[in-house]
Amino acid sequence: MILVNGVAADSVAATDRGLAYGDGVFRTLLVSHGKPQCWSRHYRKLAQDCAALAMACPPKDVLASELALAAGATGDGVGKIIVTRGSGARGYAPPQPSVPTRIVAVSASPQHPEAFLRSGVKVRLCRIRLSSQPRLAGVKHLNRLENVLARAEWNDPSIAEGLLLDEEGHAISGTMTNLFIVEGGSVLTPRLSRCGVAGVTRERVMEAAARQGMVCREDHLPWQRVLDAQEVLLVNSVIGAWHVRECGNRRWEPGGFTGRVREWLDEKED
Amino acid sequence: MILVNGVAADSVAATDRGLAYGDGVFRTLLVSHGKPQCWSRHYRKLAQDCAALAMACPPKDVLASELALAAGATGDGVGKIIVTRGSGARGYAPPQPSVPTRIVAVSASPQHPEAFLRSGVKVRLCRIRLSSQPRLAGVKHLNRLENVLARAEWNDPSIAEGLLLDEEGHAISGTMTNLFIVEGGSVLTPRLSRCGVAGVTRERVMEAAARQGMVCREDHLPWQRVLDAQEVLLVNSVIGAWHVRECGNRRWEPGGFTGRVREWLDEKED
Question: Is A22 in contact with B26 (Cβ distance < 8 A)?
C-alpha cells in the first residue's frame, strides 16, 4: 500500500519537484510486525538529509504510523519513505514556503537466493564512476541516475551487486550497499565526503565494531586495497550483510567478520 | 494544462522512476500559436537524451499534438516535456521492458523585467560547483539538485541568474542558461564534456555564428577568462539571449554580439 501525505493513493502531483528535479530524499528500511526497524536511527538520518536540502522533515510519529498502515495486515515488508520539496511552479528556485510531499510505501521483501547469505556473493566492478559533489555526499537524495546506470551494466542474476569507484579510483560503495573491508586487524569503510550514501547499517556496523574494541575507521580505499583485503562485505538495511566471495578473478574464503556483523545487526534497536 | 501519457491529468504514478531516481529527461521550449518552436531541433535533442539513458522516446508527432492541446485556447506559453523510464518495482535495475511515461505541460511565459532585455542582467557566481560525470554530461536529465541548490543561493530579484563553475574552476553555464563570451574576435562557449546541459539555443547560436563566418568554438573557460571577456551572454529557449552587464565588481558595457544573437534566434525554424 502507498500513502501520499497520509492518504492511500497511487499517484503524486505531476508538478512535484521530486519528479521535476529529484528535489527530495528517501529511506529504505525493514518493517516487521508493523514496526519500522532501527527507527530512531532511520528517522534521524531522514531528518539530516532533509536538512541538507533545507527542507522540513515530516514528524517521526506520523511517518511511523503511516509505515504501520502501509504494511497492511501482515505488518511485514520493505518500507520506503520519500520526502520531496512538494509542488512548485516551473523553475529551479525552491518555493517559499514549500510544503513537503511524503510518500510512504511498504512492499514485499526481495527474494534473494538463499546462497547469497550462506556462501557469499559474486560482485562486479562497474564501469561508471561516481561523481564528486561534497554538498550532497552522504545524503540519500533522489538524484540516483548514477546508481541506475551502474545497475543497468549487468543482468546476470548470479551477480548480486556492482561496486562503484569515484573518479580517482577509490572504492565508494555498491549500487545499493555500503562497503567494508578487513585489512590486517582493522575494519575499514570508504570515506564518503565527496560521494556515496552514508547508510544507517554502515553506521550501526561502525558503532558496534567500536563498542567491541575493534579498530574501525573511514579511509580512502583505492581499488587494489579492496582486492588485497582479507574480507569484503556489503551491508544495507534490507539485506543485512553479504560476504563477497568473488569479483573478477579474485576469490575470497569466508572470513569471520561477516558473521559477527550479522550478530550485531540482529540486536534490536528503538 | 498537463497531459500524462496523452490524458489530461494532474498526477503521475507514485512508483514512477522519474520520481524515485530522477530516471528521465526533459525539455523546456516555447509554444506559439499551438506550435512548439524549433521543434525539429528540440525533438532531436530529446531523442538523443532518451538514448543516453537507453530509454525509448515518444513519437515526434504525438508530442507536438500534445503540446498544442496543452497550450489551450491561447496556444502560447512555455512547454515542458518530461519523459521518464516509467513505473517500476523497488530497486535501481531498469524494468525490462520499460514503458516510458510522458508528461506534457504548457504554462504561462515567465514575466522577467523588461530591463533584462533592454539593459542586460546582473548575475552572481554560485558557490556550489558542478560535479563531473562524463556519462551524463550535456544530457538534460531529471537529476537537477545541483541547479536547485545553486538557485537557492540567492533570492534578490535584481539578480537574474547564477553562474556555475566545475570543480576545477571552469565556467560551465548558468543555472538555467548556456553561456557565451566574446574574446578578441572569437565567440566561445564552455566545453560540456564533463558536466552541464548542451542546450538547443546554444547549438543554434553556434551554428548561426559559423554560418556568418565567425570563429565560434567550445573551450575550457577558467573564470578569469569570463571576467576578462569583452561581452558575456546567457541564452536559453525561453529567454532568448541576455547580455550580462554586471557580476560582482565587474561591469560590462553593451556589446554588439547579443543583438546579433537575437536576430539569429528570431529566424524561424521547423
Answer: no
Tell me whether A145 touches chain B (CB under 8 Å): yes
- Look at residue A90 in the predicted model and tell me its pLDDT: 81
The fold of the B114-266 domain, in CATH, is: D-amino Acid Aminotransferase; Chain A, domain 2 (3.20.10)
Q: What span, in angstroms and rounded, lies between the C-alpha atoms of B225 and B223?
A: 5
Interface ipTM > 0.95: yes
Q: Does A90 touch chain B (CB under 8 A)?
A: yes
The alpha carbon torsion through B97, B98, B99, B101 (nearest 10 deg) reads -170
Q: Which of residues 176-195 of A touch B (CB under 8 A)?
A: 176
Assess contact for A226 and A182: CB atoms under 8 A: no
Crossing angle of helices A39-52/A60-70, nearest 10°? Answer: 120
Q: Tell whether A26 lies on the interface with B, counting CB pairs under 8 A.
A: yes
**Using CA atoms, how far apart are residues B177 and B68, in angstroms rounded to an integer?**
25
Instruction: Supply the pLDDT for residue B9.
Output: 96
Instruction: For Cα atoms A175, B195, A142, give the angle at the middle one, nearest 5 degrees.
Output: 40
Of the partner residues A13, A142, A148, the one whose CB lies closest to the CB of residue B11:
A13
Comparing C-alpha atoms, which of A154, A155, A181 is closest to residue A250? A181
Which of A68, A75, A69, A147 has its CA nearest to residue A108?
A75
Residue spans of chain A under pLDDT 50: none
> Mean pLDDT for chain B?
96
Residue B213 has pLDDT above 90, yes or no: yes
pLDDT of residue B270: 83
Q: Alpha helix (H) ranges present in A53-199?
A: 60-70, 114-119, 145-151
B-chain CB neighbours of A2 within 8 Å are 14-15
Q: Which fold has domain A2-107?
A: D-amino Acid Aminotransferase; Chain A, domain 1 (3.30.470)
Chain B residues with CB under 8 Å of A23 CB are: 144-145, 148
pTM of the entire structure? 0.97
Q: Domain limits of chain B?
A: 2-107, 114-266
